[in-house]
Design a protein that fits this description.
This protein has 376 residues and is α/β, with parallel strands linked by helices. It has 15 helices and nine strands. Helix 8 crosses helix 9.
Amino acid sequence: MSILPAHRLDLAGHRRRCGVVPWIAYHDDDGRDRLIEAVELAGLRGRGGAGFPTAVKLRAARARRSIVVANGCEGDPLSHKDAALLALSPHLVLDGLQLAAHAIGAGEAVLCLHAAGPVLPSVAAALAERDDRVPVRIAEVPRRYVASEESALVHYLTSGDARPLGKVPRPAERGVRGRPTLVDNVETLAQLALVILRGPHHYRAERTDLVTVTGAVRRPGVVEVPPGASLAAVLAAAGGERGPVQAVLTGGYGGTWTADLTLGVTGIPAVYALPAGACGLAYTAEVLAFLAAESAGQCGPCVFGLPAIAADFAELLRGGASTARLARRIPLLTGRGACAHPDGAARLAGSALQTFETDVRAHLAGGRCRVLEGVA
């Protein structure tokens, strides 16, 4: 059974398709242990990009007065899987949210969505159908790239300021309003629900993951693939290539360029297929300019580093000798910000210089690469 149904399911339709959560098996503290053990046995990892073991996060946040936060904000423009899930199967997410709250002993649950986003009506309608053990409220978060980062959500729910707090303390230690907090991506919660509804062994045998595929494919959109599927298999699930593809960007705007389609999807589950008739350096320059504009503006790597490498890429496109500066600057961005925003930009920039090395030389030689030679 696929994660995404063909059309939106109300509560009755969801239960006909997926079943009812067997709460009686997890009603006490021993049941909570069994719940987390089932998640561990299933091998579930986070689907927001980091891939951290979900069972470890559940154990870390298990405490009195804990809070569970479902992250349904997709800040990366290349990712649409969470929106598809919330639009078509909101009750699967809400089942997972309730299970996560039960596992950690939370008495409060928050579902974070983009302010005025298109999935709000679907989620609101789903909540109106339910009478859950733990009340769920919707928090509308500003539509900014870094606003959906884990610590930024904690900061927003505490103070109304959607900027990252830093890497320590972790939300499980000190989260929303100082309370232990579990922050999980909505697909992770949907997968958690499937672990309990199907059982961990059955789940492992049939599991699929959601990946957004855009660019030079015949059917761009959200596809379901087995865990660890190659990039070639992901493109095939989207109808195959629509003409020659010179490289793919895996992991969203903070991801990695590669021409090796035998590799798997890394980072955010999003894949962009760059057609042969496009300039990868020009695409990267546009993304870097976007990332520079979307920073929280509170750390040196973002305030100074991101605009600098974005300007260096723009100069490279014009034939300027900026590669030496990029070689010095890119390593300085990594590991120094309050969040991983500058790390992603550095990863993107570095991989572009390697993957499109031939085009780098062409731009340096004459200001135009082979792709742009025919552009007026």
